[in-house]
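Why run this: before we spend reagent on co-expression, it is cheaper to look at a predicted model of the complex and decide which construct boundaries make sense. The entries below are exactly what would go into the expression plan.
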Amino acid sequence: MLTTIGKRLLTVLPTLIGVIIVTFLLTRALPGDPAAYFAGPAATKEAVEQIRVSLGLDRPLPEQFVRYVKDLGRGDLGNSLSTGRPVVTEIVSRLPASAELTLLGLILSMVIAVPLGILAAVKQGSWIDHTCRIVATAGVSLPVFFTGLLLVYIFYYILGWSPAPIGRLDAFTSAPPNITGFYLIDSLITGNFETFRASLSQLILPAFTLGIFSLAPIARMTRASMLAVLASEFVRTARASGLDNRTVIITYAFRNAMLPVVTTLGMVFSFLLGANVLVEKVFAWPGIGSYAVEALLQSDFAPVQGFVLTMAVMYVALNLLIDILYGVIDPRVRLEG
Amino acid sequence: MKRREFLKSAGALAATAAVSAPSVISSAKAQSRKETMLIVSESGPNNIDIHGVGTNVPGYEVSWNCYDRLISHEMKDVNGTPYYDRDKFKMELAEDMNVGDMSATFKLKKNAKFQDGTPVTAKDVKWSLDRAVSVGGFPTFQMAAGSLTKKEQFVAVDDNTFRVDFARKDRLTIPDLAVIVPCIMNSGLVKKHATEKDPWGLEYTKQNTAGSGAYKVTAWTPGTEVVMERNDAWVGGKLPEVKKIIWRIVPSAGNRRALLERGDADISYDLPNKDFVELKSAGKLNIVSTPYSNGIQYIGMNVKNPPFDNLKVRQAVAYALPYQKIMDAVLFGLAKPMFGAAAGAPTQVAWPQPHKYNTDIAKAKALLAEAGHPNGFETTISFDLGFAGVNEPLCVLVQESLAQIGIKCSINKIPGANWRTELNKKVLPLYTNVFSGWLDYPEYFFIWCYHGKNSIFNTMSYQSKTTDDFIDGAVTAAANGDKATYEKSVKGFVDTAYADMPRIPLYQPYVNVAMQKNVSGYQYWFHRRLDYRTLTKG
Amino acid sequence: MLKAPTPEVDVGTALPLLDIRDLTVEFATRRGVVQAVKKVNITLAKGETLGIVGESGSGKSVTSYAVMRILDRAGSIAEGSVLFSGLDLRAAPESDMRDLRGREMSMIFQSPRLALNPIRKVGHQIEDVLLQHAQVGNESVSDKAVEVLEQVRIARPKERYHAYPFELSGGMCQRVVIALALACRPQLLIADEPTTGLDVTTQKAVMDLVVELTRERGMSTILITHDLGLAAAYCDRVVVMEKGHVVETSPSETIFKHPAHAYTRKLMRATPRPGITLRDLLPEEETARARPVAHNPVLATEAPLLAVENLVKEYPRKGVSTTLKKMFGTTPVPEGDVFRAVDGISFQIARGESVGLVGESGCGKSTTSMMVMRLIDKTSGTITFGGEDIGSIPARSFATLPQRKRIQMVFQDPTDSLNPRFTAARAIADPLLRLSDISRGELRARCEELATQVGLPLQFLDRFPHQLSGGQKARVGIARAIALKPDLIILDEPTAALDVSVQAVVLNLLQDLKDSLGMSYLFVSHDLNVVRLLCDRVIVMNTGRIVEQGPTQRVMDAPEAAYTRDLLAAIPHPPV
Amino acid sequence: MTETVSIAPAAAPKQSSNSVFSHAVYVVSENPVTGLAFGLFALIALCALIGPYIVPYDPLASDTAAALQAPSWKHWFGTDQLGRDIFSRVIVATRLDFIIAITSVALVFVMGGFAGIAAGFFGGWTDRVVSRLADTIMAFPLFVLAMGIVAALGNTVTNIVIATAIINFPLYVRVARAEANVRREAGFVQAARLSGNGDFRILLAHILPNIMPIMMVQISLTMGYAILNAAGLSFIGLGVKPPTPEWGIMVAEGAANIISGEWWIALFPGAALMIAVFTFNLLGDGLRDLVDPQRRT
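The model came back. Tokens follow.
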């Protein structure tokens, strides 16, 4: 198992190197001039130049790159120019917010989409099937920011069921002590149920917004692979052996059908992380998505690079996790690994 | 009419919802809620030290409330709103100010202490002002605007006495000591965190407040929130009533409005004009609108390059702009028109003041033909995406209007981060922008925007000997108290500016603040940010 | 329900175990309702073994699915009744059916590997069935499962209990499937092509096991097969079905000796068996018309058309997770660990000669043919064709060389080997367009000529593969192979996917073409009976090596190698 | 749907001429949702084609006197802040959104589709390079990558199209690679080789047409995502330039007005956008059925 993981990590190295290079070039290609931005509104050209030198932006690109990679090697992602804080600290403090939201969104989506997909496959061609398809597709057809604003309008502004969309907690609840960074978990660990309730109520709308968006790919995949499995010989054998419907569908069909679904989860997660950027903006969520967007629009290189790198590492880690999960479900992989 | 009706029903709906909905805040928090002010805005500070590199405007607000200056301004009443009095100063850290011919002497309040308990001394004052003129960038520039450029000008006479020596006679020197930049810092504390590379301890103050001000920052998550708590030992003025300020960043304007309407937020000051107008008519909230002091939104043209190097083209544009449409559809009336002065109206000794152009497409066409562009030309109109709410519809209207006289312009959105870079290149042919000066003097505005020394805000690259002479003349006259020459000079540069028309003023924008009915004590300041110290809630 | 032991076969007297009356099964398709089974009457006595024989589309499998009531969503029983021990299965509620399935009647499907849940331990799969039908309590269920495995002669059943299907061989999987079917000691076992896809030797072992177990338990069995020989060898009675109808029902012996129905006779004749010629496979009226098989004398002195010397092909052994491969596309090769698919073989083919290459799956016969075909590169050895060393030309560049014209191939699966998006004419024209300088104008004429040559009616030329029957597709594949008039054609199990009657025709067609065009054949097959009919010489391969080669007659009649003898012994022999 | 044993058709060969149509009719009638999708698609295509000629108002003309009017007989979808007719803008925007969707998909199909097929077919280094490239792109949060590209290259329609194509690249590579990989050992590919087809010809003439059905699904899905992507960029401020009507930017602009009660500004373009994405998404399965000859029994 360890060697498999080791080999996997080795194969992702080129990907990470690619990500580093692409991000570096992309951020340098941004049109803004951070020096002018940070020189302030009344700076002279000399002042701008002075700042440019102090930021090291006057050096040739390859030199900047080498310096960047050296810093990376030391675990230094640089400082954000706009907030002045080390990017590492910022990411560490913001990542849990994004991760909590995205994971909850993904879980919500799976909880709804997987049964929908199974139902659609079992009742293939019926009105249930068509309805599932329409519902899931409709969810992915709206821009997330629009869904988010609509939900805020209905559930906060009109109905008042949901708390104000101002981040992870309302202004008057204090955050739980930082253990995992996930408010839900931390508040439970410390037994602070009021904070748990507060943070959960803040999470519901944005998580639903994300969940609705990722219904379609998961439901689609579940349905397709369920159909394939239901038509397979071993399901027929199971039926011919008189196994009841529940055993056939859950133990025989569903577990096999989950294999391709699990593999697509990585992709859906990546998809959600992208959508997250917009959702965070709508819900004033202090995650790393909104952080990166602001930085990108301000040509603030370091956070963008740090963000992308973090995401790349997470993506790789997630895929590794999925491989392991795949191995747990599928003995064929386990043995070979 | 229909819109109104809809608004009413929406308002009613919201009101019922507010009554029937369970309160978001549990009773346990009710007390702290009462003593806390929740402010929501689109963006937050990136640095809480105004001396820092690239501190943004929200950062100024923190500095204003968490630091003291030697002096500040008194308030006067303008249309029912407390408005800072340009000419009257009040003491803040200083107990007494004595202005002489070439220097000013300040006595510090004896009981003044920094937030860590160390007393405020003249050494701290000197160190702070030295810092302001030394760190470079914006603070140094701002100091220079009041002829404060050298450390030698600041003298700590004794622990309690501080003197500023004037470099030259300049009537902006004293007002410049009352802006945000010359704030007084705890030099001992900051020096402890200074390093060789960072002799002024900028890294420390970027994240921490080290002043004697009424509030101190207790928590700050960039882009998310700033929490400030009252400094109970403050001596700069009357102890503020609000114990805690929570400033949350809510990027979506719609959500900010919702927060206000639902009563969850206490104050917000950056909302679209439309929302302010509607909230005002709905009457649930207190809306205060005050014109920017010494500021205008304008259309600028690059006079160095064709086709806008031609005066007739510029005049044609001035006649083609849809002034009233902009006032109605973009600003919803929340601005002061800077166009269409009566033909015979005399020029005022004031700035801003309206010009005499009005929308007149026929005249514009004729002028354009005279200029040799009977069929118009193509160009680009640029704006700062950071203020897209106003700029975008404004540019769309301008674009449409100019198309009527044959000028086809495409719209170029420039992200906020790049805006200054682009302006600094001075190549944008046509653009819209806002400029306002902290110091409310006409010549201050003109030095920045029209003088031939071509500062960054002379975005038109305008060069005119006549204008330069008038501006310089006004500065000298003001310093010497020569009222007649001063008035003549001001009228002179205003007239020249309107004759040459390198930039076309559109309107004087309003600062709009929406507050819950139970919030009072709002004051208008030149920097247009909130002063928490006078706010009350009850 | 208490099970009455039925040790003796008592046909006709007692109540039949299964009584199918006027069964009609319909499928709703895009073109309307299609009757797959029409008014079928079949009875099965207790303890009897009944064979249902028919070609594809005869409705034999559908009949059995209808009995089990596991038809597809689109299918339904339209008419008739199915009585099982007097119980009307058609009217029984689904819950009753679920109880019956697996407990009273079981089914074995073809492709055993696919019939097992790939990610569940075989022991647990057996337990699922045992628990479902409450055969044992929870505590003793695993012992019972092991016992069941033991009964199907699985060695070390306790270990196998924890095995996943992919860890077992095909034959072993089929034993597990049988164990699954027999776990609850049902009265009826339906075996649907249980040995298709298994090697002959495994096939025999599996069939012997089924017969032994069912006899021992006095069970009734229905064996569904396309192989008349298999049915006759193992069954008491045989039902012959054609296009949804039962055309004949007779005891096995009778059916072989005195087939009553014309279709049965045709089927009988088409089944390859010892002691007949190729022409005997065809229906009587056609045998008369067919030309006698020409005998091109093979001159030993003449230089061989193809000479293979010490041919070796090695593959890196598979070792790394398949997902890894999926994710990253490449597999790091573990050093020194290679698998020899072909292990130094040498043989020759003369001009006009037809040589059979026989062996069980994995023996290296396909790899050999691919190398000769120049589709894959050899590891070492030489391949000389027409005096030229073609083995050293890389496979990749061989495709566009003129030599390509001279070696062609007919593939095993006619469906897979035709581009689904090409019409028959386009498929036949492909080699002509690429490798000959035929003009566009002549192309169609040449295609039609070839179609005529292979007996493909011209109106089928504009159809797509899925619109053609198996036999027609096979003809298209043959027409494509002979289009360039090659010297050597490699026939890779060209009839394995075809029904016997079609196989008979295709084999004869191949013989005719060889005679008229003077080509050489390398006929790759697992079926010795077929090889016997078509080939002059035969090469027997096992685990990458040649175990025996020689004239067909000699190898068949007096095999020298023990392996050949095993192979021959495993072929099911119908009672003659 | 699994096809049962295919019964050789009895019809004469000339059937092929009208069978395309009858097949389409069948595919549509078989699945009502697909029928709906085809109908909506026709409507969208029609709007894209003739939209600008039929709208009642100039989509760019402001009329500040009629600003922010609720839907009425005069303005079916109401008017926006500048008094422009939303109905006209929504209809006219169809063309641009359609173009964005189609060109970005065409671009990524050419890049990703071919790279993927080549990777799956050749394996080895081609595969390694293409897969690494796809992995690298995939490791970026896709929307942020699109933002970065548009921010770096400038916010023009062309750059939005390029960015959309790039972020969809890995999806196409994956699908095309997997499908080509399955077919590289297929009988018909071997047969094509025997017929003297070179690798390149096999790739284009034999493999590509066969993976078209599955690519059709991908194409229709990404067409929808292309529009969503453009809308997201507009929300951040990186979308197309004003005053060009485009659904995403209209929704983004109108979104701020939902709370103030002018729901129609965002709702109608939002609905148009949703219908388009919805249609494209649902269309995939129908298109696959239409293109797949196997389904044409």
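Residues 306-570 of chain C form a domain with the Rossmann fold fold (CATH 3.40.50.300). The mean pLDDT of chain C is 84. Bring this page to Monday's planning discussion.
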